[in-house]
Design brief:
The protein is mainly β and 478 residues long. Helices cover 5% and strands 41% of the residues. The protein has five helices and 34 strands.
């Protein structure tokens, strides 16, 4: 990756946040309230609070949180289970909750003004849907998400397979990225033009499950399923597990043929999820580094795998089993309609202007409105606008995404799961099912999906500052 595509952040500045807790914190308790007539019932309270992001010895950070915790409480259900989530808003502004990666009915998707009215302060909204797919998902606001997620509003949503997967532990790491000031507070420079026009809001403090962590305890012989969720606004992680060989078994919640990642590096863009199976092969008392090495010259140690206690057993020699497939319907590539999606704009881009509110607007006038990006020549200023395409219900489609910018874009499609067909004309080896695909600078990626979920669905960059700066649109399935 070129230096110009990386964050304006020194390695020293990032490591300054590294004096933290001895162990990676566990996730907050479940938000499950009880089993009701509608299925599993949960309550989420969005409100200001405090969190010890940088450790107990550092000043607490004022945050926005679900149920007083960062990340928010884990929602964990079984595949096929119906859930009901009551969200109460005690924030000083409107909010919503989007269930990222879950194929929910359109009125439950949590996009303000497009699928629901925003939840006003002091009011509540009830989301209800069935969990068709097993896997690792997450939830977050879609109202001013660059600021609300950046202040702490996110949480994991785990849908367990119908039959337990054979591992010793099932662990979730919510990866967070914060821009903290010396007094421990979150910098209030959300949506500034530099972030919007460059790589997005890259912070100076990285957390695992809401705290800067020094180590994660393991035992020799354990086989762990590690669910990674990238809840950062913009940071891309490239994790390397020293002395270990993780197997990727799921991407964005959906099973993939178990395989060791290229060069041993697990790359996970904003909003994406990766499920790993890792055999703990170290010796008791040993430590192995987990390093984030995505940005050249800015590598840092995320935490250590710390071998504690007696060995559980000698490391397993059995194969890593594939996860059972989810009930996602295959697109018919022989009849699929093709749509070009061109991503343009950003610093060092050549975009002269774009359509804004139906009128051609030059880039200088766009900048005055905080708009820097465009899709197919349109810079969006909100969630409601003319759809990029109207697709017949039940029809198959290919989106050919061409990134004409100098920056990375994790492109997320709501309400659907797509196959990643190819990159720069080369077919993908495993044709992964995903809901968020990371598109490199100047890269061309093709994805395919069946338009089987009626409604208006967002399609946008999940670098949240890029979304706020115009890189979003919608697709109508009717």
């Amino acid at each position: 990756m070129s230096d110009r595509s990386g964050p304006a952040l020194s390695r020293r500045a990032l490591l300054a946040g590294g004096a933290g807790l001895a162990l990676a914190a566990s996730l907050p308790p479940s938000a499950r309230a009880h089993e009701g007539s509608h299925g599993a019932e949960f309550r989420l309270l969005a409100a200001p609070g405090e969190a010890a992001l940088a450790g107990a010895s550092r000043p607490a950070t004022p945050v926005w949180a679900y149920n007083g915790a960062v990340p928010g409480p884990g929602i964990r259900v079984r595949q096929g289970e119906r859930v009901r989530v009551v969200v109460e808003n005690r924030l000083p502004e409107e909010t919503t909750v989007h269930w990222h990666g879950l194929r929910v009915p359109n009125p439950m998707d949590g996009v303000p003004h497009l699928t629901q009215a925003p939840i006003r302060p002091g009011e509540s909204f009830t989301y209800e849907f069935a969990c068709e797919d097993a896997g690792t998902f997450w939830y977050h606001p879609h109202q001013r998400s660059h600021a609300q997620v950046g202040r702490g509003l996110s949480g994991p949503f785990i849908v367990e397979e119908r039959e337990p997967y054979p591992v010793d532990r099932d662990v979730t790491w919510m990866l967070g990225d914060w821009r903290l000031l010396k007094d421990g507070s979150v910098s209030d420079d959300f949506g500034n033009l530099h972030d919007v026009s460059h790589a997005g809001r890259i912070g100076n403090t990285v957390t695992v499950n809401g705290t800067v962590a020094q180590a994660f305890e393991v035992r020799r012989g354990e086989r762990i399923r590690l669910r990674l969720v990238n809840a950062a606004n913009a940071r891309i992680f490239g994790l390397e597990f020293e002395g270990h060989a993780p197997w990727i078994v799921a991407l964005d919640g959906h099973p993939v043929e178990p395989h060791v990642p290229e060069d041993g590096r697990v790359v996970i863009g904003p909003a994406m999820r990766v499920d790993l199976v890792i055999d703990m092969t170290g010796l008791p008392g040993g430590r192995s580094k987990v390093t984030d090495a995505f940005y050249k010259g800015l590598e840092y140690r995320l935490l250590d795998l710390a071998y504690a206690g007696e060995r559980l057993r000698e490391p397993r020699e059995t194969a890593v089993l594939p996860l059972p497939a989810n009930p996602v319907r295959e697109p018919d590539l022989s009849s699929a309609q093709r749509h070009d999606v061109v991503l343009a704009g950003g610093m060092m881009g050549t975009m002269a202007g774009a359509m804004v509110h139906g009128e051609m607007t030059d880039v200088r006038a766009m900048l005055r409105q905080g708009l820097v990006w465009a899709m197919n020549g349109v810079a969006a200023t909100g969630h409601v606008h003319e759809p990029m395409a109207t697709l017949a219900h039940g029809s198959s489609h290919i989106l050919a995404i061409k990134n004409e910018t100098e920056w990375w874009h994790p492109m997320h499609l709501h309400g659907h799961t797509f196959r990643v067909l190819g990159r720069d004309g080369v077919p993908t080896r495993r044709r992964e099912w995903q809901d968020t695909v990371l598109v490199a600078p100047r890269e061309r990626v093709e994805i395919a999906f069946l338009a089987d979920n009626p409604g208006d669905w967002m399609f946008h960059c999940h670098v949240l500052e890029h979304q706020a700066g115009g890189m979003m649109g919608s697709i109508r399935v009717a």
